[in-house]
TrEMBL record:
Cell membrane among keywords: no
UniProt similarity note: Belongs to the iron/ascorbate-dependent oxidoreductase family.
UniProt entry keywords in alphabetical sequence: Iron, Metal-binding, Oxidoreductase
Ranges where the Fe2OG dioxygenase domain occurs: 171-277
Record GO terms (molecular function): metal ion binding; oxidoreductase activity
Species annotation: Oleoguttula mirabilis
Protein name stated in the entry: Fe2OG dioxygenase domain-containing protein
Domain of life: Eukaryota
Pfam families: 2OG-FeII_Oxy (PF03171), DIOX_N (PF14226)
GO BP: any one term: small molecule biosynthetic process
InterPro entries: DIOX_N, IPNS-like_FE2OG_OXY, IPNS-like_sf, Iron_ascorbate_oxido_reductase, Oxoglu/Fe-dep_dioxygenase_dom
Amino acid sequence: MTVVPTVPTIDVSPYLQGDISPDRRAETVERVKAVCFEYGFLQVTGHGIPIATQRQMLACCKTLFDLPQQRKDTLSLKNNPARRGYERIGEQVLDAKALPDQKEGFYIGREVPPTDTGFLRGPNQWPDLPEQTFHGPVTDYYQHMLRLGKALLEMLVIGLGHDISVLETLTKEPVVNLKLLHYPPHLSKDERQFGAGAHTDFGSITMLLQQPGKHGLQVHHEPSGGWLPVPAAEDVLIINIGDLFHKWSDGRYNSTLHRVVNISGDDRYSVPCFYQGDLSATNPFKPGECSGETVEQHIRRKFDQSYGLSAK
């Protein structure tokens, strides 16, 4: 009988809680490292984000995407230098061999004054909704993501044998973007149609909140040659390695192909948080590297390609 592998689940609370013994913290780091080496993905519990905060964030998705199309279009990311704002269904193509993605999205990041606007950096485009209905809950969730993202990066760095001080430049003024997502029911019979086509993520790490019970995420597992379904369970976040950390770790941390097919039969909401890093940062493990490619150069190339935008 063939045993189908599953993306492992790890309780990261021993690392996040400072009063836990050093041995348990070290054991947690080793488990995270091993799973990221093989899968590039892990399911995380003990992350410290209140259930109420998670539920409010998912409710914000529905509130936003239920707005009339015309109101959403006024917030298009294509009209925003910082690329904050709304994307229509079909505007992003994550897999060039597939049809345009059947999802709509909305980017939100750290607030930056208009005088400092640049790629993925600037003021947000907020929908005209009551503070307690959208802006407040989204901002609260975002702060949790900043804290958790930095802790996860620390674990990954320690796993490679480095001191966490190497993160100082990468995490000084990091670009960390939430993307609210709505996947309509999957009705197409075309095998080239996905909610999100097969792709790897662009940046350092991604932290994903899924609507409980609305499954759809699939992760490619190279050893078995198949696609592993990753369930959407309450209070479980999905963490995955992006292309930057894959490259910077010389391929030891695996940036894994994944895709979404909304098999729920209903609307599906999720919220990935992309922790890219400080846009001016370069490889923290090889500060003298000849290429000197910055986070911004790497992310801009992949981002613009997926939306059919020309780099500016």
